Fold:
Amino acid sequence: MHVAVVGAGISGLSAAWRLRRRLGPGVDITVLDQSGRLGGKLATGEVAGVRVEQGAESVLLRDPVVAELAAELGLGALAHPAPLPAGIVAAGATRPVPRGTLLGIPADPSILDSSGPARATPEPPGGPDPLLAPGADVSVGALVRPRYGDEVVDRLVDPLLGGVYAGRADDLSLAVTVPALHAAAQRETTLSAAVRAAQAATPKATGPMFGVPAAGMSALATALAAASGATTRLDAPVRELAPTPAGWRLTIGSTRDPGYLTADAVVLAVPARPAARLLTGFAPAAAAEVGVLDYASIALVTLVLPGDVLPASSGFLVPATEGYAVKAATFVGHKWPHLAAPGVSLARLSLGRYRETRVLQRDDADLAELARADLAAILGTRLPDPVGVRVQRWGGALPQYGPGHVDRIARARAGLAGYPTLALAGAGYDGVGIPVCIRSGFAAADRLAAVAPDPAAPAGVAHAGTAEPAEISTGE
Ligand SMILES: Cc1cc2nc3c(=O)[nH]c(=O)nc-3n(C[C@H](O)[C@H](O)[C@H](O)COP(=O)(O)OP(=O)(O)OC[C@H]3O[C@@H](n4cnc5c(N)ncnc54)[C@H](O)[C@@H]3O)c2cc1C
Structure:
């Protein structure tokens, strides 16, 4: 059996690794990516000799899958952040992020006092019915705004959600971004009771909440690829995917000089738009459901500043209402002691919010200067000239899951039920967090493993898939 995995991000690589685990040495796996490197949004790099993460920075450890994988892949123990506070900029000052909330939504709104970034309005009494009808989905803002007031949404929930999705509380699906609250809101009649129930249903963290492989995020991608034993083909954009009587045919490369690859099964682990383009020829309804998903573009500016010039904090978040271009800052050496470099301070600044792309039209030098000016203004200090600057742009970076996303993806997958040798995986479908992407890759591999030929069966026995050998050709 030959499986083609399209997309060498964490989702595709996790699928490749799991396929090897499930099917053993008898499966051929080819991982294809249009870019020249593995990892997708996992990208460890260097600025002025200092290691930095230019994409995803860390992993939420509530799901142990990353720690388990890292140990299994020989990456050693994870590094953890220092227990330093983070702030939210509000009315010109940086205030502590209130503790004990669910993405900024407290069970008891009175805990939000004047020392924090936002005050809540008293919640109106609940009605006879639960907050949400069974299976209904709304935006996070639509649930919270009428119950706790605008300040809580604009100054607290919005920047916390924005730090993950670069999106706004009034646009993002409750079911995807705060699933425990979505479940509780279908049973409870007040927001405070729903938050209490959601928090009670969430297992308490017993150790550090976040971690990262000590060798960096890219190490996870390269180790997965190596352990999967897959053939990797980089600079290999897949332009067409077509079912054949025997399996699948992929068209790769430029229109002038295309190459072809046949496979018995395919994992499609690319973002929603390229996935929709590849699906549209044979599954237009599923393609339409997938292609609805929009993405936010962002840029990360890393500044290496001489001296110890940043406060002893892990960084800050900036609500859109504050008027800065920077939406989040990480003080890398403070937050991640294993990345601290002597004699310099590292600031990782994130710019770009959903539908606010104008700021990203600046050239790199301009963008870096804007980020530095915002940082200095927020800290209320002059900053030295950086000794190193890196601007990393991520066009179409972060999926903006609108209300109804979960149902749309369920419909898309149902629309592909007639193709049991095709599986979707990735952030465009199942969620943005790295553990979720890994699980999504695993689920895709499990779907294909379930229809793989039985290795114990005599050769030539019919199965879902094909006995045709994997074949790579160009210029057909
Ligand atoms: C700046 C940034 C910071 C983040 N920080 C965190 C964090 O700290 N923690 C966290 O959990 N998550 C974080 N995320 C989110 C997380 O990194 C992503 O959700 C996750 O890495 C997505 O993985 P993926 O494999 O689904 O997709 P991707 O990483 O997007 O991989 C998809 C791959 O498909 C390839 N591709 C696309 N089209 C084609 C085609 N036609 N043919 C061949 N290849 C194709 C692309 O080149 C890409 O390599 C962050 C994201 C960004 C952008």
User: Anything to note?
Assistant: Confidence is low (pLDDT under 50) at residues 457-476.
